[in-house]
Amino acid sequence: MQEVAWLTRQSIVPGRIPCSRISRLPSDDRPRPKRGILEAVGITATSESRNQPLPAAAVATAPPSLLADYATLFKVRVSTMVLITSAAGFYLGSLRSGISPFNAGMIQAIGGIAVVTCGASALNQVLERSTDRLMRRTANRPMAAGRISLAHGLIVGFLATFLGSLYLARATNPLTGTLTLLTAVAYVAIYTPLKRFSTINTFIGAFPGALPPLIGWTAARGVIEWPGVALFAILFVWQFPHFMAIGWMYREDYARAGIRLTATLADEKYAARSTVVQALFYAVLMVAASLWPFVLGTAGAVYAVAAVVLSLGYLWCTIRFAGILRGPDLSEADGPAPSKPARDLLHASIIYLPLLLAFMMLDARGRLLF
What we know:
The protein is mainly alpha-helical and 370 residues long. It has 3 domains: 2-49, no CATH class; 66-224, Tetracycline Repressor, domain 2 (Orthogonal Bundle); 230-365. The protein is built from 17 helices and no strands. Helix 6 packs parallel to helix 12, helix 10 (174-194) packs antiparallel against helix 12 and helix 12 (212-221) runs antiparallel to helix 13 (226-249). The radius of gyration is 28 Å and the shape is globular. 40% of the residues are buried.
C-alpha cells in the first residue's frame, strides 16, 4: 500500500512518468534522479575530448556503405585522371594510324587500364594503412579504419592488378599489358615504401604517374614512339608543381605520419625555398614540354598557341606559389584554411592538364573516321 501511494503521488507531478506506465513496476525499478545520469554523461564527454580527437566512428553519422568504401579504396578521382590521360593517348595513337579512336578497342583498353589502376590503388592502401591512420585526411579510409580487412584488400588488389594486366595483353597487345603491370609494380612496390625513407620518392613516383598516356598510345599503335614519349614527358613534368602544392598544403599531416617530402624537412625556411624552386623549375620546363607534340606533328598551330597560353598561366600560378616564402606557417597546414597560394596552384594544375589534352585532341593531325 505504501508503494502504491508513492506511485500515485508521483503520477500527478508535471514532468514525471505517468502512473499508468509505472504502476506495475517493482520498487527496484522506480525512476532514478536525473542528476547522476547527467554527471556521468558530462564526465564521459570530457574524458573523450580533452586531449584527443574524436574517433571517426563517433563523428560520422553512419558508416559508409561497401560501395562507398570501394570508391575510396580505388581512389576514384585519381583513377579518373589516369583514364582521361590514357584515353587521350589512345585517341592520338588511333589518329596517327588513320583509324577512328571510337571503337571496341578503346573500350577494352580503357577498361583494362581502369581495373589495374583500381588494383594498384587498393595495394597502395594496404601498405599505407598504418600511416593513413595518423593523417586526418586519410584516417577514415576503409583499410585504415578497419572496415575492409587486410586479406580483403590484398585479394582485391592482386586480382585486379594481375588479371587486368593479362586482359590488356590479350585484348590489345603484350607491350601494353607489360607496361601497365610495370606501372602498378613501380607505384606499389617502389614509390609507396620509399615515401617513408627519402624525399626522392616524388621524383621516382613521377615515372609511373606519367605512363598512362604512353600506355594508351601503345594500346592503339602497339609500339613506343616519340609522340607517345612526348605525352609521357608532359605528364612527368606536370606532376611536380601539382605535388609540391599538395605537399605544402598538408605538410603537417604528412610529417605526423612520417612521410618524407621536401615540404616536411626540419628546417622550415629551407623546406619552403626548396619546394618553390622545384615547382618553378618544372613549371618553366612545362612550357617547352607542352610544345613537343606540335614539333613532332601530333597537333597543329592552334594547339601550339593554346599550349603556350595555358603553360604561361600555369607558370604564373607557380610564381604566385612562391608567396609561401614570405612566412610559412605550419599551423595552417591542414586546418580549415590551407595556404592559399598552394591551394590556388593545386586548382590550376587540375584545370590545366585536361584543357591542354583537350586542345591537343581537337587539333590533332590525322584522319578521323566515324
